Each structure stands twice: as C-alpha cells, then as structure tokens.
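Chain A, query sequence.
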Amino acid sequence: MAAGLVAFAALNAPGVPKRAGPPAEELSVERTVLRPGVIELTVRNDGPDAVRIGQVSVNDAFVPFDSDAQVGRLGADKLSIPYDWIEGQAYAVQLHTTTGGTIATDIPIAVETPTTGLSFFAVMALLGLYVGIVPVVLGMLFLPWLRRIGERWIRVLMAVTIGLLVWLAIDATLEGVELAGEGSQAFGGPALVFLGAVLAYLALSGIDAWVRGRRETAEAEGIGSARLALLISVGIGLHNLGEGLAIGSAYALGALALGAFLVIGFVLQNTTEGLAIVVPYAQRTVSASRLVGLGAIAGAPAIAGAWIGGSAYNGSVAALLLGAGVGAIVQVIQQLVPTIRDRLGRALYPASVSGIAAGMAILYLTGLLVGG
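Chain A, predicted structure.
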C-alpha cells in the first residue's frame, strides 16, 4: 500500500482532475532584518502554488527590491529592499504578487538588527549563563536546608516541584502555539508543538527505561533519587532552551528592552528550578561533581537557545523545541507523582494539592515580571 501511494504521488496523481481557477497564494514573512538603508524580508511559501513577488510597498509607497525569484511550495526567498528607514518609526510593508495578491507585515519599531559576529555570540553566551546556569546553581544551594526538614515536608516540596513543572509546561505550550501561529504554517504550525512534545516524551521514557535496566542491581532508593534528579534537570534544560530562544530572538529583532526584562524574569524563575533539582537528594548523599553536572544539564541549554535565537531564529524550529520541552516536563511529572504519595497511597491530599498550587503560583508571579 505504501509503495502504491508513493507511485501515485510520483506520477502526479493520475486520474485526479487538475485544480482550476486562480492560484492559491499563501506567503508568510518568517524574518525581518533591518540594516542601514535596507530592509530584508525572508518569506516562505505555505501554499500549493508557486508565488512571484511583483511589487513591494512601504507605508503605501512603492519601492524597488532586488529579488525576482519564483518561490515554490515550501520554498523560501530573501527580499532586499533599499529604504532609508528611521529608527523608532513604524512601517507597514506590503508584498504584491504578480497575480494581484497582497501579503502584509508590520515593523512596529524600527531598530537595527544586531550583527551575529563573535562579540554577539559572546554576549548571548553570557546572557545564557546568567539566565540558565547561575540561577539554577543558586537554587541548588538550598540542599543543606532541605536535609534538615522532615519527610512530610519533603513530600510537600516534591509537590511544589510538580507545580513548578506544570506551570512551565502550560507556559511553554502557550508560547509555542503562539510562535507557530505567527510564522509560516508550511511545516505544521501549532502541530509542531505537540509533535515535539510527543517525540520528547517517548524519547525520555525510552531513556528512563534503559537507565533503570542498566542499574537494576544497584540500591533501589539511590537509583530513584539519581534518576529523578537527572530527569528533572533534562526537563528543565529543554525548557531553558526555549527561554534562551526567546532572549536571543528578542535581541536579534532589536527588542532590547524586552530582552532585558526577559533576563531579569528568567533569573528569578530559574532559581526555583535549581531548588527543584536537589529536592530528590534531600535525604541522600550526593557529590559536588554530580550537582555541577545536573546544573549544567539544566542551565547550559539556555546558552544554546540564545545562540540559535540570536542568529537563526525560526518560528517553526522554536515551536518544535518548546514542544520538546513540554514533553520532557510531562514525563518528569509522571516520575515525580509517586514521590508525593502519603501512607494511604494518595497523590492528591490537602498538603500535596497546596504544594502543587504554591509551585504554580510562584512561577505565575515571577512570570509577571516578563509580561506574563
């Protein structure tokens, strides 16, 4: 059957009547770059028919542009528009196809796009360090305090950790769907978020099963603590990758004020994530090198995200990565639920529900610092 479908597609669907009427043109603007005297637009064809740009207008005035390429399905093209834009001004750009279609995009505040040189990558790495590794390590310093509290409070803190992760999953899902909806729909749009989530969940579930199989002869409690801490670090790391994407893309697009607020908010937020990582070790011994490794797993992806977001930001890639973070977090939550059960085997009881609600409230309040 699969071979038949492939042959049917390769032969251009024989027997199916050809579509009549005007071409279906669906063009989206993936990226806008501002250079002195130039506006660069990267466009992608989401529709089934090829598209050719015939004219370009900026603020209702026709302007020249240098590209005359025909953009095929799923193809992309870069338009270079010579235009003396003024910093701080707003611009409405319209692309007119040769068949009369119009694709509009807005530049709310014109700011020169930073160049992606060595200094830019160094700055992005520094921001990723501040946002990812430093606050996570600071949160992990609460480990000595955790070891002085009772088992009941450990379960409550585990519930707080679940609440933190639940809110991170919700936030990443909403952000991913929003990003996917704004850009090109050629690769699935919002569906990429859920695809990334499913793939990450399955991958982490497989890795978790493999780790348990490799260590089944070791002490069961020790395995549980190490495995939970590792899974929490991986889940938070994938989420921090999305945070790095947000920061890098904000600076790349010239939204420097937004980028600064993102850094401040994520630093506060990620301190609580560091605390979540060390909760499984509250009653277990752990080496400093392992804690450093867990902190790097959770925090370093923010650096990679800042690099990607600052140099090659793409809404579809960002949506897929944010979805992967969601899937990882859901898998971690599944692993954490047994740790909050009381002596009656209940996962939801007043103390655990309060802890989950508190964890969600903490990230909600810190999220207000970055505009929600």
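The chain has two domains: 27-107, 118-370. Residues 220-252 form the longest helix (33 residues).
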